[in-house]
């Protein structure tokens, strides 16, 4: 069956919860063992003191280690990406930072696509730097040969431990070839040290892109965005093989940054409508992009559907291979600069002026002064993050109402 058919029931047994059709919120810190031997055996597994017996599952111990609301949610998330295991965190940042801390040590080198999410960028360039982990950034559009040369010229090629990318890139939807990054990973991997490739797939929900299929080792999400989808919860997730996720969950246990049962329950509720929400959001985004493409006050539209039409041959190939939809993020350049962009943003009525994305309601923001305020000027220039850029996250509203709102907002900009 398809994942969307299983989101209401997978991994949950009503008979264990008084027949309740929905998984209750297991708001409990600890779980009662049937006897002392059972407790001993659970701990042996939890702390890796022995291998699991055939068919044995880790019993419930303590909610920092495991909780039904997290385990069932994690099992359901695995279905979308066809991953062996998932770990849910209390935020996207805690998922990303835990992975980076687990798989790198002082002296290692991290390669990452620029710009990455602001919080990730800060973690790399402040915390990891303090831990003596070096980093190198590359831009969407850089070729494999250029990136390999960049790594070799840094003198740290033998220390490359991890490649972390975001595609399509925020806010302009530039695409990065995951398979190319997997080739770079293989180029620098040695028998005794495999380079890991992680992909932050937040922009594509877990619906429209499946990085593990293209050679990524780990896929990361801010579940705050499409997975949560209602702008009412902060959460994160990481998925991958049993081997890698065992390590990720190990560090999560000791950092204690797992999601709580209430967050787990909210996300399970969100997963039931994930597919229908995202389908509707993508359909609406197409209407909005079509409208923007013809508006006289719009100079450029950054949308995967436009890349499909006007992109380079290389971009079109990547698009075709990696994405099953053009997504629901649309950015555009308004004619003018900050004044016009701000007048436009201040005039929106239905669409709310806020950062974040992926929720049921449409949002608009100004990357240069908001989400990307901290990005260095060189990257901003390379990524077309200018004063005239406006980013939209398209929600589930009626598309005619969205377009009417955009239209009245353009009209209220002084020079229209
Ligand atoms: C929001 C976001 C994050 C951070 O997630 P939080 O849930 O806010 O911690 C990471 N990556 C991307 C691409 C994001 O959009």
| Number of extended strands | 12
Alpha-carbon Rg, integer: 22 Å
Q: List the domain count as a whole number.
A: 2
One letter per element, helices H and strands E, the order comes to HHHEHEHEHEHEEEHHHEHHEHEEHEH
What does this structure look like?
- 40% of the residues lie in helices and 14% in strands.
- It has 15 helices and 12 strands.
- The protein has a 7-stranded mixed sheet with strand order 1-7-6-5-4-2-3, with helices on both faces. The protein has a 5-stranded mixed sheet with strand order 8-9-12-11-10.
- Helix 13 packs across helix 15.
- It starts with a helix and ends in a 5-residue tail after the last helix.
- The model has no long low-confidence stretch (mean pLDDT 96).
Descriptive tags:
single chain, 416 residues, Aspartate Aminotransferase, domain 2, Aspartate Aminotransferase, domain 1, five-stranded mixed β-sheet, 40% helix, binds pyridoxal-5'-phosphate
Please provide a brief summary of the model.
The protein has 416 residues and is an alpha/beta fold.
List the helices and strands and how they pair.
Layout: H1 3-6, H2 36-46, H3 68-81, E1 85-89, H4 92-103, E2 109-114, H5 118-130, E3 134-139, H6 144-153, E4 160-166, H7 178-188, E5 196-200, E6 218-222, E7 236-240, H8 242-255, H9 261-272, H10 274-294, E8 298-302, H11 304-310, H12 313-322, E9 329-334, H13 338-347, E10 352-353, E11 363-365, H14 377-382, E12 389-393, H15 399-411
Parallel strand pairs: 2-3, 2-4, 4-5, 5-6, 10-11
Antiparallel strand pairs: 1-7, 6-7, 8-9, 9-12, 11-12
Pyridoxal-5'-phosphate (PLP) binds next to helix 4 and helix 5.
């Amino acid at each position: 069956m398809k994942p969307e058919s299983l989101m209401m029931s997978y991994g949950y047994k009503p008979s264990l919860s008084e027949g309740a059709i929905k998984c209750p919120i297991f708001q409990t810190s600890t779980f009662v063992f049937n006897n002392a031997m059972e407790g001993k055996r659970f701990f042996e597994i939890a702390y890796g003191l022995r291998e699991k017996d055939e068919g044995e599952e880790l019993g419930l111990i303590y909610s920092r280690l495991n909780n039904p609301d997290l385990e069932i949610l994690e099992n359901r998330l695995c279905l979308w990406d066809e991953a062996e295991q998932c770990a849910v965190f209390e935020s996207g940042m805690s998922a990303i930072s835990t992975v980076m801390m687990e798989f790198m040590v002082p002296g290692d080198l991290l390669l990452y696509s620029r710009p990455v999410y602001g919080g990730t960028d800060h973690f790399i360039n402040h915390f990891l730097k303090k831990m003596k982990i070096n980093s190198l950034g590359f831009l969407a559009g850089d070729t494999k040969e250029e990136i390999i040369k960049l790594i070799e010229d840094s003198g740290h090629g033998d220390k490359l431990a991890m490649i972390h990318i975001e595609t399509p890139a925020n806010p302009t939807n530039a695409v990065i070839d995951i398979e190319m990054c997997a080739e770079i990973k293989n180029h620098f991997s040695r028998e005794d040290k495999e380079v890991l490739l992680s992909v932050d797939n937040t922009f594509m929900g877990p619906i429209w892109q499946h990085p593990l299929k293209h050679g990524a080792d780990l896929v990361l999400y801010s579940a705050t965005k499409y997975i949560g989808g209602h702008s009412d919860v902060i959460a994160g997730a990481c998925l991958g093989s049993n081997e890698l996720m065992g390590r990720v969950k190990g560090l999560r246990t000791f950092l204690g940054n797992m999601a709580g049962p209430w967050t787990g329950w909210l996300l399970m509720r969100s997963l039931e409508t994930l597919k229908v929400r995202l389908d509707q959001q993508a359909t609406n985004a197409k209407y909005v992009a079509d409208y923007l493409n013809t508006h006289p006050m719009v100079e450029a539209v950054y949308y995967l559907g436009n890349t499909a039409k006007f992109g380079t041959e290389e971009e079109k190939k990547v698009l075709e291979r990696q994405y099953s939809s053009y997504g629901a993020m649309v950015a555009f350049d308004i004619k003018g600069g900050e004044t016009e962009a701000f007048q436009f943003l201040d005039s929106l009525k239905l669409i709310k002026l806020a950062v974040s994305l992926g929720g049921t309601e449409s949002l608009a923001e100004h990357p240069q002064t908001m989400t990307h305020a901290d990005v260095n000027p060189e990257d901003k220039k390379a990524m077309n993050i200018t004063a005239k850029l406006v980013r939209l996250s398209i929600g589930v509203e009626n598309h005619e109402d969205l377009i009417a709102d955009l239209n009245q907002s353009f009209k209220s900009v002084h020079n229209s």
